[in-house]
């Protein structure tokens, strides 16, 4: 009777994995599956599986030792049956654990259209802590996962591409390899780089995604696993430092713009390291705009050509880019707005220089 129940359960389990259950059977299996706990926390790594297997076999050896004490009174066929039954139970448990572990990995995979065999072959790391978790990949790249995020990656990258899959938020610092683009699949988008640093974030409530570039060049486009080279496909967006793209899932819309706090491209640049790098004395707006564009890698457009030759005296050393622009607007009575990836300064007039008394 117990064997029939065991066989019946395994048949139902296999149908559940194949997504062929419905009605009360599926509901019951859903409840059972949820009771197993957090798949990210309980998913067995290869080393853990080996440890479990060793423990189970140790119990077999213990059982055999106990059995040997009473061998003289137990018929041989009973002993053989006991050994076979015990070994079969171990194999059943191990097979069941492997099956559940692989099912969880496939069931929770963040990208559609990936073969089950490929998913099972990938390493998976999940950050279950409140602080970022660092992962050093075999090519020298660094990934930092935020709390709750998971990274799926191969044991070794192939000769043409470096491909990983992200669920949640992560920071990437990718080693340069012009011959092998680094490709990150996350939800419905794919991010392709050669060697750069960037972040990928996803809002858990709205599903809105954002890719922001810190250094280098990044291509973001709709996920298409047939495209594995460093070329922008239809609908793709090319990003450079201090640029970001926001993807709205319900409209599949890509909105390019600037990051919230643009940073200097190279803080070790000699012309930017000096204490007076952004101290201007009787400098024209044209010269100031050119320096800001070079320092932050952004485009600044001045609509009113008449103010390009206005002279300005100001110390903008410790200010952020947008605060620098606010100061310039106050001095020129102008206004600035961000349109896409461009900062546009409009209006304004030259004001006479008034030295402090």
Automatic annotation (TrEMBL):
Q: Which domain of life is it from?
A: Bacteria
Q: Which residues form the FecR protein domain?
A: 133-218
Residue ranges of every copy of the Protein FecR C-terminal domain listed in the record = 278-345
Signal peptide from the UniProt entry: none
What are the protein's GO molecular function terms?
A: sigma factor antagonist activity
Q: What is this protein called?
A: Uncharacterized protein DUF4974
């Amino acid at each position: 009777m117990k064997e029939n129940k065991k066989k019946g359960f395994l048949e139902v389990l296999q149908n559940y994995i194949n997504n062929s259950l419905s009605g009360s059977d599926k509901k019951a299996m859903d409840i059972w599956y949820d009771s197993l706990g957090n798949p990210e926390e309980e998913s067995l790594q290869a080393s853990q599986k080996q440890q479990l297997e060793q423990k189970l076999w140790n119990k077999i050896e213990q059982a055999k030792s106990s059995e040997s004490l009473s061998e003289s009174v137990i018929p041989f066929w009973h002993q053989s049956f006991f050994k076979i039954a015990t070994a079969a139970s171990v194999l059943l448990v191990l097979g069941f654990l492997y099956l559940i572990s692989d099912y969880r990995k496939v069931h929770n995979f963040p990208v559609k259209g990936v073969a089950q065999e490929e998913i099972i072959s990938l390493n998976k790391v999940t950050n279950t802590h409140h602080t970022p978790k660092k992962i050093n990949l075999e090519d020298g790249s660094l990934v930092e996962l935020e709390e709750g995020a998971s990274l799926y990656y191969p044991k070794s990258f192939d000769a043409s591409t470096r491909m990983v899959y992200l669920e949640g938020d992560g920071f990437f610092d990718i080693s340069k390899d012009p011959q092998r683009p680094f490709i990150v699949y996350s939800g419905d988008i794919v991010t392709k780089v050669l060697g750069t640093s960037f972040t990928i974030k996803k809002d858990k409530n709205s599903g809105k995604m954002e890719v922001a570039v810190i250094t280098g060049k990044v291509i973001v486009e709709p996920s298409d696993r047939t495209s594995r080279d460093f070329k922008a496909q239809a609908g793709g967006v090319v990003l450079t430092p201090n640029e970001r793209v926001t993807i709205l899932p319900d409209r599949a819309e890509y909105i390019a713009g600037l990051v919230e706090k643009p940073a200097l491209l190279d803080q070790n640049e000699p012309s930017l390291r000096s204490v007076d790098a952004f101290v201007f004395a009787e400098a024209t707006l044209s010269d100031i705009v050119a320096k800001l564009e070079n320092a932050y890698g952004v485009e600044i457009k001045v609509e009113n050509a008449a103010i390009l030759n206005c002279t300005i005296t100001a110390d903008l050393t410790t200010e952020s880019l947008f605060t620098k622009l606010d100061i310039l607007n106050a001095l020129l009575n102008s206004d600035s707005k961000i349109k896409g990836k461009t900062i546009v300064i409009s209006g304004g007039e030259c004001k006479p220089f008034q030295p402090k008394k």
